[in-house]
Design a protein that fits this description.
about 250 residues; mainly alpha
């Protein structure tokens, strides 16, 4: 608990935390509102209440995943900034277990990522239901929770991936560049390579988009969650090893 409290104090006292969170939430919320209004205006008049409810959730979580880069950058800056300033040495003196420190950072950042996703999703969902009122959307259908979980997990994964990259590379610019390559550049590059589709499926973007119903299903839902979650667990494990050896 002391480790969690210490990491939360450090995180919330940094201006970069509020800038990254604020920019990510506000931009994503604006795009969510605009996107939801555009999508709903094109719906077939015969859409049922369940279809309308599901459509609102999908439209909202397309906007939510747009916050992955700002929050991923927050994760990268949290780790690399401490190395640059030397604060990490003070932290390790107070708490010698480097694995414990990194896990505490991951828990705090994961909580911030979930909070950020809710700050986008809740207002976006309420707005979407208002815009779709003529379709009389029902309460959330069962399938909507897969979308909610998938979109939220993508935000958490991007944040923790940034943390892992910042810990290993110890440079904010390099960690951010690596994050952009993994999240944005690699999926596009894979499409033009032989066997690129298979490569794309194991990158974090495709399973996330499958879970929020933006691409065809190429794997079971449980496998999509497993691939996406691995992009947080494996890099963090590497970061723990790297931190222990430094």
């Amino acid at each position: 608990m002391n480790a969690l409290a210490a990491e939360w104090i450090k995180l919330r006292t940094l201006r970069s935390t509020w800038w990254a969170l604020g920019v990510g939430v506000l931009v994503s919320l604006a795009l969510t509102v605009l996107g939801a209004a555009t999508v709903i205006s094109r719906w077939d008049p015969g859409r049922t209440g369940d279809q309308a409810a599901m459509g609102v959730v999908v439209a909202v979580y397309v906007g939510v995943v747009l916050a992955q880069l700002p929050l991923g950058m927050l994760g990268a800056m949290t780790a690399s900034g401490e190395h640059t300033s030397g604060m990490i040495d003070v932290t390790f003196v107070a708490m010698p277990s480097r694995a414990r420190v990194l896990v505490a950072k991951a828990v705090v950042l994961g909580g911030v990522a979930v909070a950020g996703s809710l700050l986008i999703a809740v207002p976006g969902y309420l707005y979407g239901r208002v815009v779709a009122a003529e379709f009389h959307p029902s309460s959330l259908p069962a399938g909507a929770w897969t979308v909610v979980a998938g979109g939220t997990l993508m935000i958490v994964v991007a944040t923790l991936l940034g943390l892992a990259l910042g810990t290993v590379l110890r440079n904010g610019a390099a960690a951010t560049a690596a994050l952009v390559v993994i999240v944005l550049v690699a999926p596009f590059a894979a499409r033009v390579l032989p066997g690129g589709d298979v490569v794309n499926w194991v990158l974090p973007g495709y399973p996330a988009l499958q879970l929020i119903e933006q691409v065809p299903d190429v794997m079971p839902t449980w496998a999509a969650f497993a691939v996406l979650g691995a992009w947080a667990v494996v890099p963090l494990s590497v970061a723990v090893v790297a931190a222990a050896r430094s």
